[in-house]
Write a structure and sequence with these properties.
This protein has helices spanning 57-60, 78-81, 231-238, 273-276, 285-305, 321-330, 343-346, and strands at 8-11, 17-25, 28-32, 38-42, 46-50, 82-84, 97-104, 115-122, 126-134, 140-148, 152-159, 169-177, 188-193, 206-208, 214-223, 261-263, 266-270, 310-314, 336-340, 350-355. The strands form four sheets. A six-stranded antiparallel sheet has the order 6-11-8-7-15-14. A five-stranded antiparallel sheet has the order 4-3-2-1-5, with no helix packed on it. Strand 14 (206-208) and strand 15 form a beta hairpin. Helix 5 (285-305) packs parallel to helix 6 (321-330). It contains seven helices and 20 strands.
Amino acid sequence: MNFKPGDKVRFLNTTGGGTVTKNINSFMVSVAIEDGFEIPTLTSELVIIEPSGTSDKMFTRAHEQVAPPKPVEPIADEYDRTSRIRTKPGQHPVPSGIYLAYVPHDQQWMMTGNLDIFLINHTDMDILYSFFLKDAEGKFSGIDYGSIEKSSKLALESIVREDIEQWSGGVVQILFHSDEGEKVLMPVSTTFRIKGTIFYKDGSYKECGLLDNQKAIMYTVCELNRIPSTVEHLLNEKEGLDSVPVSARQFVPESAIDRYRIAPREAEVDLHISALRDKYENLSPNEILTIQIGVFERMLENAMARNYTRVVFIHGVGNGTLKQALIDRLKDYGDIEFRNAPFAKYGNGAVEIVIHQNM
């Protein structure tokens, strides 16, 4: 939907509305609200209720004049691209941390149309960030860098669906800053990789309170409670102990797949529902299968991004429904090999996946 200065609009995800004053870029406009403030707003969060000039066309047609040329809009800076996170009471809490979000423009038809990509700072600290993409040849391109205030999100880019593969893998680096505090967090540098086929599965998109309950694919860059601080390093210096060299203190956040590691670059994931949930007695068979498939896809994607070479998924014997569902999804992945795990250890209840791209 194209917006023009003068269009009267309504906010889709909150009450109220206003008048478009200018186009910031292809996916964001400035909206003047009743109290006179102008708010940068994504076009995907607006609907036109009265196009510009509708109310006075009948009076001006006879006196039309050539309008003076519009001044060239300045290139959007970081303040144009950022907006505050607006959470609502009663929403499921999201752990404090940094997140990537892929938000479809069309919230009715998730698997078609353009997407907005956000870097979300869901912490009480400001951050400095660097964002890199990795191409098919393994080379990295620096796409963006800058700062994001606490409890805010930044629109990295709006992409067409055909560019998803280019935006599904890379590196994010984060530095945390607060004016005062009891500790200083270590820098974060982490890789990310999201399988392109996930964007074409309706169940991949979940409502997120950090995005006004819009549906999105969310990727956890890091959770705040998993990042160590420099406190231990400072205490060591005060007590005259040997300190750890700064070059060795860069923090790479623990990966979800690391919890299942059984050997260097190898993991074993038990998909029995009793291993995934403490309370599952009231779940239907379909709900259980959905949970198991979700864990399987997240752990496999994580293993591929974290340079694992081998993962065993224990599915059990049962009626074969889960095993077949795993095999069906594995067909979407290239450069991996899957087979029955060693019978002597797992019987017929596990599948072994070899990730050749990480060999």
